[in-house]
């Protein structure tokens, strides 16, 4: 029991020492940090080449040029897809396609 308390106290002390390093001791410059943030953010899917084909396969002919509801909900326009959001998943069952659409809808 006593050894566990001593071990826990030493881990806590090491954590405090690590937290109180000099402010400039890390080697990340603002430029490096910004580059890392850009690299780590996933690329948003392209509407014309990745998203639109999904809807062409599932929602044509009604929601594309000449279709019955094209005037109200044109699925060849990214604004319509953004406005409807995940309500579109009633027709999209493939989880990979849903994931791609979620990435497109993400801010």
Characterization of the model:
The chain has 107 residues and is an all-alpha fold. It has a domain at 47-105. It contains 5 helices and no strands. α3 packs across α5. The longest helix is centred in the first third of the chain and has 18 residues, at 2-19. The model has no long low-confidence stretch (mean pLDDT 79).
Key features of this structure:
107 residues, mainly alpha, elongated
Short summary:
The chain is mostly helical and 107 residues long. It has a domain at 47-105.
Secondary-structure topology with pairs:
Blueprint: H1 2-19, H2 30-40, H3 47-59, H4 78-84, H5 95-105
Helix pairs in contact: 3-5
Tell me the β content.
under 5%
**Helix content class:** 55-70%
* Elements, N to C (H/E): HHHHH
Indicate the overall shape. elongated
Distance between the termini: 51 Å
Total strands: the figure is 0
Structural class: mainly alpha
Specify the biggest β-sheet.
none
Radius of gyration: 25 Å
Arithmetic mean of pLDDT:
79
Runs in which pLDDT lies below 50 for 5 or more consecutive residues are none
């Amino acid at each position: 029991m006593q050894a566990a308390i001593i071990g826990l106290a030493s881990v806590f002390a090491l954590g405090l020492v690590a937290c109180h390093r000099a402010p400039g001791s890390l080697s990340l410059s603002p430029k490096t940090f910004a580059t890392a943030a850009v690299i780590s953010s996933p690329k948003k899917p392209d509407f014309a080449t990745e998203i639109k084909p999904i809807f062409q396969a599932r929602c044509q002919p009604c929601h594309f040029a000449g279709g019955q509801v094209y005037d109200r909900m044109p699925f060849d326009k990214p604004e319509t897809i953004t406005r409807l959001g995940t309500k579109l998943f009633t027709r999209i069952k493939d989880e990979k396609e849903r994931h791609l659409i979620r990435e497109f809808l993400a801010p």
